[in-house]
Amino acid sequence: MRKQNLPSDRLKNKLFDKILKEIDIGIHAVNQEGKTIIYNRKMAEIEGMEFEDVLDKDLLDVFSFHKNEYSTLIKALTKGETIINAKQTYFNNRGQEITTINNTFPIVDEGVRIGAIEIARDVTKLEKLIRENMNKKSDTRYTFDSIIGSSNEIKDVIEASKRATRTNSSILITGDTGTGKELFAQSIHNGSTRSARPYISQNCAALPDNLIEGLLFGTKKGAFTGAIERPGLFEQAEGGTLLLDEINSLNPALQAKLLRSIQEKTVRRIGDTKDRKIDVRIIATINEDPIDAISEGRLRKDLYYRLSVVSLFIPPLRDRKVDIPDLVRFFIEKYNHLFGMLVKEVDEKVLNSFYQYEWPGNVRELEHVIEGAMNLIDYEDTITYSHLPIHFRNKPQFKADTKDYPISIENSYDIKPLDTYLEEIESNYLQKVLTYHNHNITQAAKSLGMSRQNLQYRIKKYELK
């Protein structure tokens, strides 16, 4: 590599430009006239702006503020104030609301203020989510009477769940996506002595770790993620039940903090030094085998043991197909009411296809198929095979023999795009490989010569079990 000695000022400028571009924090500076002279990539990302919309423009021409509120940058510039950990909510030039926590400083040269600079952290998503959770009423409409099915498999889980209502022990509910894990969680809450107290549900996979931590444990005034005292979901659920959905999506450090709160029955808000007592029953859900999650580092073993004082396994629909007729009748009645229709039943061919299918999306997928069919039905009172959503009718499970994937073209309706046909072959083959490896994704990916992430993408794409 050719050595190049850059002049000191040029080197400093290059380093300065590189830092502004790569640093993961917003930087915004204005000159003596209040016009933007420095605006980095992260600040543009936080505010949803383009550089040319802000640079060399008067800050107050670009951004607007609530009545009786002022720009912290302009305040530092005009009054010479140094402002630390100030929360500011304002709007960009498209009316989009932004909330940041700012450290703002005047720039002084020989006693004269020549500008101001602001360092900002984005808390827009956190503010929105906290407002939604503070204003959200407990939605606990489900009870054990809401659970549809007469199979022994589902009856056993219902009975075990009813017994769990008598205590306050933590519960871990395991089940595939769409099996109805929250339905059971709500039923347990409503059947317990905590039914009159709050029920709060939070999907742990829906938020990044830095947001979920503040949402769960709360924040203290002066903490970098918020300027006011705010209780977390643990405190909001006091005396009631907190459902933590997809617990395996939390990072190990956050799982350790969660374990401490459950064991000691206390929480500590972010930025605080004081522990607060809590009385909350924890119900957690996981959509994979907990042993696989532990062995692959997605679930701490000690947290698993603490949560699984009561363990419930919700069987997938493929293991309780005897319940399909009851579920079909229930969903037909539901959408008759919603759509103002008078559908009575599904025909025999449809019911046979339902029995033949493996239902990777479980009860939720069955509901969507019925809803889709009732959107296509006209004045008939019976759902026929032609009413089913086309993506469902094209499933390879309904072919005469999927082993050799035969091609039978008797009319133009049998011809499909080549991409669709190849996807069906790939989906069928991947399902067989996963079954051979007992659904162990790591082993299956290795035998297929692909990465684990690549296989997981295809499992999600094709809705494989």
Shape: globular
Would you tell me the overall average pLDDT?
85
Give the C-alpha Rg. 28 Å
- The low-pLDDT segments are 400-406
What is the overall number of helices? 20
Our measurement of the CA-to-CA distance between the termini, rounded to an integer number of angstroms, reads 53 Å
In this structure, how is the largest beta sheet organized? Answer: 6 strands, antiparallel
Count of distinct strands:
17
Main sheet strand line-up: 2-1-6-5-4-3
SS-based class: alpha/beta
Fraction in beta strands:
15-25%
Give the fraction of residues assigned to helices.
40-55%
Verbal overview:
About 40% of the residues lie in helices and about 15% in strands. The chain is built from 20 helices and 17 strands. The protein has helices spanning about 10-20, 40-45, 50-55, 60, 70-80, 125-135, 150-165, 180-190, 210-215, 235, 250-265, 290-295, 300-305, 325-340, 350-355, 360-375, 390-395, 420-435, 440-450, 450-460; strands at about 25-30, 35-40, 65, 85-90, 95-110, 110-120, 170-175, 200-205, 220, 230, 240-245, 265, 275, 280-285, 310-315, 345, 380-385. The longest helix has 19 residues, at about 420-435. It is globular and about 90 Å long. The two termini are about 55 Å apart.
Quickly list its features:
six-stranded antiparallel sheet, 20 helices, 465 residues, single chain, five-stranded parallel sheet, alpha/beta
